[in-house]
Amino acid sequence: MKNSHGKVLLILLIFLHVEIFASTYEWSATASKNKAYVNEAIHLSYICRFSDDAELYSIEFNPDGDYENYTIKLLTKSERLINNKKVNSYEFVAFIKKSIDVDFAFDTVMKKTNKDSIKNTVLGRDNASYEEYTKTKIKQKNLHVEVVKTDIALVGNLVLEVKKDTPHVKAYEPYHMEIIIKGEGNLDEIKPLEFKIDNVKVFAGKVIKDIQLTKDGYSGILSQKFAFVGSEEFIIPKLNIKYVNLKLKKEDALVVNAVKVEVEKGFKAEELLDKADEDFKINYEYFYYFFAFVLGFLISKIKLKKPKKQLLEDEAFKEKVKNTDSLGELSVILALKDRKKYEKLILEIETKKATNINKIKKEIGLI
After folding, report:
1. Backbone phi, then psi, for 169, in 5-degree steps?
2. pLDDT of amino acid 277
3. Rounded CA gap, 226 and 304, in Å?
4. Top-confidence residue, 197 or 130
5. What does R_g of the chain's alpha carbons equal in angstroms?
6. Which CATH number applies to 2-148: 1.10.4160, 1.20.58, 1.10.10, 2.60.40?
7. Which residue, of 141, 205, 216, 238, is most buried by count of CB atoms within 10 Å of its CB?
8. What is the pLDDT of residue 266?
9. Which residue ranges run through the membrane (predicted)?
């Protein structure tokens, strides 16, 4: 009996506290800019400040997603007590996809625990029929953003770095180049770069991304490697990567200058094989590239299976080797990965000494 009276008294005290000291709250919403280019990052901040610790309240608010005119990415969210008052913060990054003004106006649901829920929790009634929460839907402050029209997809503050070999190679020896883009913007949307040069075989690696989301967009580094193989002098054409320069507030370009590559006469395939019998100092890479160049139209038909997930470079190499069932394709993969390390296997493939692809994979250590 005394226990029952104690529970009743506790319920009365809770109800009295809830009625007299009911929590109130106030929302604020801000956008980092009211005018932006298409694909420019816009930082959205939403803060809910309660009058106390608001133990009975929870919030449903997550506009993260891909919409018709824009994309919203969650940056951070937090719940803190400041001077014993609860503060809920939400930060998002928006990217407008079309040349049309946008109003960011999201719904939020405030959930408050009901008296029946408190009473049944205190009394231990698990099967009582009642609404656990009272839900109130509110509309966040409308944030209007005017869009500056542009047909250029890439937007941000960017710098370019190009790493390249000395422009003098032997016939069928690869000339290497790496293009690196650093900065912040919509870097997650950048497309692979392409070069097309007559009578030159171009090997293009995938775009390697090391980026993370910030209030100013995706920040970090993008890189892509290339190898150019030819039998005579060639020119790698100038490449302009157009983008909107947010610092200068205008259209700009990252420029990869043209490169003239001198090519000296190399070895013939039969010469490589003859010298291989005399000594072991020959670089069999030349023979491989000769074979790959002559059969370029076949190599171009090879479809490497892409890994399902973003993998590190070594993992991507292993995945490609595992997936291939063609010796010709395997020789290309090995040469692009590390021609010196795998030159023995490459030569065995090209001279038809190796015919069992599973045996080669075993030597590589992938079986």
Report:
1. -135, 170
2. 39
3. 16
4. 197
5. 32
6. 2.60.40
7. 216
8. 63
9. 286-304
